[in-house]
Write a structure and sequence with these properties.
This protein is α/β, with parallel strands linked by helices. It has helices at 10-14, 42-53, 60-68, 77-88, 94-103, 123-135, 150-158, 198-212, 214-221, 234-248; strands spanning 30-35, 56-59, 113-117, 142-147, 160-163, 169-171, 190-191, 225-229. It binds BIS(adenosine)-5'-pentaphosphate (AP5).
Length: 249
């Protein structure tokens, strides 16, 4: 099913004062987490799954990047520190991430459902999310864990380009835009992320192995984990994800 009403994510990207202009209408609400190493394709799948399921794509990385693109005088000290850590490939402290997510708690009630991408990333964050969702009477539908060998992941990261405006994701060879350097959706400029430099990629992979992989066991023990092989074209992986979710629920 293709919903074709992508939520503009205004509340998530700009903060609780902003109102989303195109909240999706859906029959069933999916509340999903997307897990997997940096560059495995979580953001790409979130875009596709969001079109199919109507669930809003909530990426913590996108919020930090949006804050980082503001002038320094407009950033809180915590956001300025987060931007600095992100560029080096390090994780932002749990307290800053949680403050940001909690502020946007209304997005967990989105009537389209949600696809959380890049959060939670540590056991602390996962436990905080579970507490909040329990308190608010919300339950996760599933946690999709994307799996791919490291060499393929590094090649995806080094060719990635992202729209400066709407954050849509491309790849120089695997998923090129129709016009070079320009976003198909909004004609925004395509840029390379600071943390896709080789030295930052090493730091990100190390942080993933040490702090995020324990979440696989955490969600497996809760009966929520849905492993999906992330090789093939984005469309193939999306179809594989949807089939795996159908079997799971
Ligand atoms: P974040 O933005 O979450 O980055 P990430 O997890 O490192 O994931 P990426 O966005 O790099 O990759 P992806 O898996 O989404 O892959 P994509 O679809 O783009 O976080 C960035 C930083 O913010 C963190 O390092 C940290 O500092 C901070 N942060 C964020 N959340 C945090 C948290 N909760 N706690 C602490 N710190 C936090 O695909 C990659 C490339 O591959 C693209 O070019 C794409 O076109 C291409 N591609 C995708 N699928 C395919 C395919 N099937 N075939 C060929 N190419 C493909």
């Amino acid at each position: 099913m293709d919903i074709k009403t992508t939520n503009d994510r205004a509340t998530w990207l700009q903060g609780p004062a902003a109102v989303c202009s195109t909240p999706p209408q859906v029959h069933s609400q999916w509340r999903l987490l997307l897990l997997g190493a940096p560059g495995v394709g979580k953001g790409t799948q979130a875009q596709l799954l969001s079109q199919r399921l109507g669930a809003c794509h909530l990426s913590t990385g996108d919020v930090f990047r949006a804050a980082g693109s503001r002038a320094e005088c407009e950033q809180t000290p915590a956001m300025a520190a987060a931007t600095h850590l992100m560029r080096r490939g390090e994780l932002v402290p749990d307290s800053t991430v949680w403050e940001m997510v909690r502020e946007r708690g209304v997005c967990l009630h989105c009537r389209g459902g949600f696809l959380l991408d890049g959060f939670p990333r540590t056991l602390n964050q996962a436990e905080s999310l579970k507490r909040l969702m329990d308190e608010e009477g919300l339950a996760l539908s599933a946690v999709v864990n994307y799996e791919l060998p490291l060499d393929e992941i590094v090649s995806r990261l080094s060719g990635r380009r992202t729209c400066r405006l709407c954050k849509a994701v491309y790849h120089l060879t695997g998923q090129p835009p129709k016009r070079e350097g320009m976003c198909d959706r909004c004609s925004g400029e395509l840029i390379q992320r600071d943390d896709d430099r080789p030295e930052s990629i090493v730091v990100r992979m190390e942080a993933y192995q040490r702090l995020t992989t324990p979440l696989i066991e955490f969600y497996s023990a809760m009966g929520l984990l849905v492993p999906v092989v992330a090789s093939g074209s984005p469309e193939e992986i999306c179809r594989r994800s949807l089939s795996a979710l159908e079997v799971h629920v």
